[in-house]
Amino acid sequence: MGSPVQPMKICSYCGRENETVMTACQECGTTLPSSAVMPAPALAPATPKPRVVCPACGAHDNYRDGIQLRGSFSWFVFFLGGIIAVLFRNAGQERRVQCNACGKPFGIRTPVSKGSLVVFWLLIAPTIIILILLLIGALFSS
């Protein structure tokens, strides 16, 4: 005889089926309800997760552009990674926005700024590692 079919938890955000023991969706990380019985996805339309939440009042996706931070030239970054590292450092800075609900300014990272930040650290990390290795070599050589 076959084993009974286990009910699956269906994510209300992305629609992925998850095992009943899961507390968060394996696809998108949305918290799953504790009960295994889920309403049909067609009955409860999924509301997308807010992309930006105001840290002061909790308003969702309700902001306007604020004062833009200007790029700055850093000699330290220039010597560690060159002009390309300076460009990626400036592109990786947070974008300043202001909440429409409470008026508080805060920073958000766009997908471009997140990618630029990763490239920046990929450019800087080898230089930092080499400098640390040279420092350790100088300390232990006699």
What key phrases describe this protein's structure?
single chain; 142 residues; alpha+beta; 2 domains; three-stranded antiparallel sheet; two-stranded antiparallel ribbon; 2 helices; 33% helix; flat
What would a concise description of this structure say?
It is built from two helices and five strands, in the order E-E-E-H-E-E-H.
Q: How would you describe this structure to a colleague?
A:
The protein folds into 2 domains: about 50 residues, no CATH class; about 80 residues, no CATH class. The protein is of the alpha+beta class and about 140 residues long. The strands form 2 sheets. It has a 3-stranded antiparallel beta sheet, with no helix packed on it. A two-stranded antiparallel sheet has the order 1-2. β4 and β5 form a beta hairpin. The mean pLDDT is about 75. The longest helix is centred in the last third of the chain and has 30 residues.
